[in-house]
Amino acid sequence: MNRVESAGAVIKKRDKIFDIKLLRPLRILLGIICGTMFVGLFIDMVSPSPLVDIQLGPALLSLRTDRVIAGSALFIVVALLLITWFFGRIYCSTLCPLGVLQDATMWLARRRQFKPQRNQWRLRYLLLLGVVVTGAAGLIIPLGLLEPYSFAGRILNNLLVPISDWFNNFIYQSSEGRWLEPVKSAPFATSALVITLIGFLLLIWSAASRGRLFCNTLCPLGTLLGIIARFSRYRLNIAADSCTSCRACAVVCKAGCIDLDNKFIDSERCVMCFNCINACKFSAIGIQSHKGVAQLENPQKTNGSRRRFLAEAGIVGIGSLAVPPLLRQLASSQNQLPVMPPGASSLNNFTSRCTACHLCVKSCPSKVLKPALLAYGPGGIMMPQVDYNHGMCEYSCTTCSNVCPTGALTPLKLREKQTVRIGMVTYYRERCIIVTNGTYCGACAEHCPTGAIEMVPWKDGLTLPRVNPEVCIGCGGCEYICPVQPKKAVIVSGVKHQDNARRPQTTKLPPSEKAHFPF
Amino acid sequence: MKRREFLKTTVAAGIAGAAFGPLLKASNKIRANATRPDLVAVLGGKPVEMFEAGIKELGGMASFVKSGQTVVVKPNMAWARTPEYAATTTPELVAAVVTACYRAGARVVYVFDHTCNAWKQCYELSRIAAAAEKANAKVMPANSRTDYRKVSVPKGKTLTEAECHRLVLESDVLINVPILKNHGGAIITSAMKNLLGTVWDRRYFHRNGLQQCIADWVSFRKPDLNIIDAYHVMMKNGPRGRSLDDLAVKQMQLLSTDIVAADVAAAKIMGFSPSRVPHLKMGEELGLGVMDLDKLNIKRVNCKTSREPR
Question: How far is B24 from chain A (nearest CA, A)?
């Protein structure tokens, strides 16, 4: 056995093991509270939720933004890492929405017994390295697809929100408007639904059959927290003298990280669910302080493969560096840019920060945001894009940029947002109803908040739209309301950099004459 | 003695009351019929004052709302703009109309609009929802297709079918409370155009000749009373408006049962020749009202002078 105490050979007596049976119910309670709040946030029952701000993934990503939020994000990151350094991965069993979802799945599937899992350290380290390097090189979606908060957000937005919306409207309709208010449903995004559904099914299958497999293989945050938890101050341990090797603990371990042959619990993979404490009839397993004790070497991990791992890490690292430019090349070969939500700043900024958690998609009151399939290229799958078929980006709204937890959208004040150009309008005169039918319309100008489309006299008393590009902010009011079918006569296309439009200027009216009725 | 006196007075008062009551009522009725103007134009006060002065000339809200009736008050709150931009009806005016309806005995008063911007923001920013709710109105959403019913428009020339908000169909009285504005497509938006907020698919209107469709839709359900808010009037960049510079202070209000006449007067307030606004002529052709104001009995009220000591 490799139970070597600290190098100085100062044998320090290990502290007592505390088998606190209360920890498990406490963990379950916290998990239920956080899980419920998280679901509540997405189905509009809880808002605004501080729960999103304390998620590790978004907080880590916010560190890269030069915003006020970076201060609070730094505090949250430090706090979460300190908690992990002290108590191990309790984050994974309480605050992590995907962790709670997996626990709930196991409970619903009545899965109470698990097999020990192989320590997939090579896979998870390389994966973490890969997504971090890709992210640093400007492409965050690989991380976003695995990051548990964003994963959970996509599940809720694409699978649960449509159901809750439908149910809401059903109650509204059947009560003839007495109960609830009708909600506008988001545009149906088949690709997002299918991709999320596949991910969701794989996740619940893995949870129902293999416990916390995802958390110790694919989850980049699990890997990161695991590395810290290796050195955690308080962790679960087995008292060799009172343990009878009855396996009761190992069987209930969702992470499969209890090695009874070596009386070793891998704190790197342990998600601190405390099932084992309550399963042990001999009080032989519990929390133990590791102060001043050298970190135990994991018996499973000592097969002299450090050199091989370094070589693999080198390959993955360099390979990941090459991925973003490659995908960007693919994306730029597409001719039309998607319209990004206001505050995205630039295509590069947005693709390097948005993890596609879909909180903005869910929060948008006019439901103009929709998850993209390939609009941003293959490297921007599931990222939100603006779709004007069912609404316009409201002139008086700054919701999306202010809910974004990762800093992919810079929070905008209303006055700022009203000049941020997210797209540019093009008017196709040959399709316009006024030209083709000779009738009055002007719906586009009617909806334009900045005067980027104005009606100017044409012929027979009719007026025709005229575009003033310098004040166009690309809000899409014109495109949304344009009655022309099938191809609209005003189309807004995306811009690579969201610059500022000129603030609309108006001239003062001549002072009105003394009031009298003109009839 | 005292008791007899009391008895005498009571009996006398009773007889007098019994005789005088119907007499008074009849005289009122005669007055109303003889002098009820076709159009009341009010000038010079705050919107609520002008409404109170104007509705008095029409015999009070009781001439339009009977006890126990359900009422729809349809303001213009189509845009997510605050009241000072005058893109939406003055909230206090809407509240005053609602209160008047309840005083006249209305069972329930509904307020809604099928908005152009996101409805909750429109309802909130225009401050109409809050004001109307304070006056006890039921502020209803109108952004869900499930609230609309397919109806045929028998008189319609272009628009023969549409989906109408169910509350318009279910309610006894429809009171139209638009705000007067310039309009890029319809030239003006006033009483007739305001009714687009009771229909589901307004794109159909734009696609098939907006002007005729506006008139056609009015023919489906003529409002029982139109109250046009022309205090601040958006003279350009309508119907949304861009800044306060678009507004002129006219300090006027029009009240009429004749939707065409009211809109003709409104067009004139904006300085437009009514012939420039095709849906007015189309409305007259459908028999919805009279364009020639000279043929009508117009009552002009000046709020300021009327409040001056006699």
Answer: 34
CB contact under 8 Å between A439 and B204, yes or no, is no
Q: Please, what's the b/e burial string for A431-442 (b: 16 or more CB within 10 A of its CB; e: otherwise)?
A: bbbbeeeebbbb
Instruction: Judge whether A518 is closer than 8 Å to chain B, CB to CB.
Output: yes
Identify whether A512 is part of a domain: no
Chain B residue with Cα closest to A368: B118
Q: By percentage, how much of chain A surpasses pLDDT 70?
A: 92
Residue A5 domain flag:
no
pLDDT at residue number B30: 47
pLDDT of amino acid A303: 57
Which CATH number do you get for residue A487?
3.30.70.20
User: What ipTM, to 2 d.p.?
Assistant: 0.81
- Lowest-pLDDT choice from A158-167, A423-432, A454-463, B208-217: A454-463
From the list B143, B183, B247, which residue is nearest A184 (CB)?
B143
Question: Mean pLDDT in chain B?
Answer: 90
Return the pLDDT at B310.
Answer: 39
Cβ–Cβ of B117/A512 closer than 8 Å?
Answer: no
- pLDDT tier at B114 (50, 70, 90 boundaries)? very high
State the CATH architecture for B37-306: 3-Layer(aba) Sandwich (3.40)
Question: Are A414 and A455 within one domain?
Answer: no
| Chain B residue with minimum CA distance to A390 | B118
Determine the Cα–Cα distance for residues A253 and A264; give it in Å rounded to an integer: 13
Among B196, B237, B269, B305, which would you mutate to test the A interface (most chain A Cβ atoms within 10 Å of its Cβ)? Answer: B237
Residues forming a β-bridge with A289: A234
Exposed / middle / buried, residue A343 (Cβ in 10 Å: 0-12, 13-18, 19+): buried
Residue A4, pLDDT score: 42
Could you report how far apart the first and last alpha carbons of chain B are, in Å? 44
Question: Is the CB of A396 less than 8 angstroms away from the CB of B80?
Answer: yes
Our count of domains for chain A comes to: 2
Instruction: Please tell me which residue, A474 or A49, carries the higher pLDDT value.
Output: A474
Asked if residue A118 and residue A100 are part of one domain, the reply reads yes
Distance in angstroms (rounded) separating the CA atoms of residues A349 and A409? 9
- Predicted local distance difference test score (pLDDT) of residue A9: 38
CA within 13 Å, CB half, A29: 5
Residues of B in contact with A414 (CB under 8 A): none
**pLDDT score of A291:** 75
A225-276 pLDDT per residue, tens:
999 999 999 999 998 888 999 999 999 999 999 999 888 999 999 999 999 9
Whole-angstrom distance, CA of residue A201 vs CA of residue A213: 14
Residues of chain B in contact with residue A515, where contact means CB-CB under 8 angstroms, are: 43-44, 250-252
- Between CA A216 and CA A117 the distance in angstroms is 9
Its domain, for residue A432, covers 422-501
Residues of B in contact with A509 (CB under 8 A): 235-236, 245-248
Is residue B83 over pLDDT 80?
yes
Q: Are A285 and A343 members of one domain?
A: yes
Contact A445 B80 (CB under 8 A): no
- Name the percent of chain B lying above pLDDT 70: 87
Q: Do B248 and A509 touch (CB under 8 A)?
A: yes
Same domain, A293 and A328: yes
Are the C-beta atoms of A362 and A48 separated by less than 8 Å? Answer: no
Please give the pLDDT value at position A5.
42
Query: A326 in a domain, yes or no?
Result: yes
How large is the greatest C-alpha to C-alpha distance in chain A, in angstroms?
A: 106
Token readout for A444 is: 């586009």
Domain spans of chain B, in order of start: 37-306
Do the chains contact at A440 and B210, CB–CB below 8 Å? yes
Do residues A262 and A336 share a domain?
Answer: yes
CB contact under 8 A, A443 and B243: no
Alpha helices in A137-189 (DSSP H): 141-146, 148-155, 161-174
